Amino acid sequence: MSRRPIPPIAPLVRNILAIYDTASVEFKDAGELWYQVALDECIQLSREYSLSTTQAVGIVAALSPNLRWERNIRAARAVLNGEGSEAYPANEFKARRIIGGESPELVLGGLKVNSFYRNILSGGYDNSVTVDGHAFNAAHDLRQPVKAARISPRDYQRLTIAYRTAARLRSVTPPAMQAAVWIEWRDGLESRYHPRHWQLVAA
Questions:
Q1: Which residues of the chain fall below pLDDT 50?
Q2: Which of 11, 179, 187, 190 counts the highest number of beta carbons within 10 A?
Q3: Residue 1 maps to a domain
């Protein structure tokens, strides 16, 4: 049986570019720098706890599901200090395996977490795309809770191609496109549609 073809990505690319082109220069710049700043924070962790950069990035990526960046870093410090964290217990276990010397490439699971790991490790200069609920909703122009986004492997492949295509059309890297759209969707457009959301983000 032949595989079903991937549906056209043109509508997704249009939605992604509509959001990117709406974003302020500040948000676009933040998207360009997001993964480099994240890498810098992981390098700082590696120095504080005598880890390799690969380990530090792997630990942060392992703990990342459903954690905002500030909470993600806080969780990494907690686990490195031998304490409990806000992360899921299964993800804490993965982080501890990486602390123990196992390769992040062998420990991390899931398309999103692996992409997040590669994006941070490269400082945003690789071709992977981190597709979470915000990235999914933005590309589909869906006003729904992030947890309502159901991203199958097939969806992930399609969205990855769409973000890469949009990035090529604006001469930026795929991680920079994804990050800028993510910031504009969550902190820009969402704040305009839902004023209270901005207060929660800014708190």
A1: 1-2, 191-203
A2: 179
A3: no
How many residues are given for the chain? 203
Closest CA to 39 of 26, 56, 27, 62: 56
Domain assignment present for 179:
yes
**Does 23 reside within a domain?**
yes
Q: In the chain, how many domains are there? A: 1
| Euclidean distance between CA atoms 138 and 80, whole angstroms | 34
**Contacts for 42 with CB less than 8 Å, ≥ 6 apart:** 53, 56, 57, 60, 120
Distance of CA 62 to the CA centre of its chain: 12
Tokens 């122009």 sit on residue? 141
Q: In whole angstroms, give the CA distance from residue 148 to residue 186.
A: 15
Question: For residue 198, what is the enclosing H or E element?
Answer: helix 195-202
In a domain, 4, yes or no: no
172 to each of 103, 110, 134, 167, 197, how far by Cα in Å? Answer: 30, 25, 20, 5, 29
1-51 pLDDT, tens per residue? Answer: 445 555 689 999 999 999 999 999 999 999 999 999 999 999 999 999 999
Which amino acid type is present at position 97? R
Task: Identify the domain containing residue 159 by its residue range.
Answer: 10-202
Question: How crowded is the C-beta side of 119, counted as CA atoms within 13 Å?
Answer: 27
CB atoms within 10 A of CB 185: 23
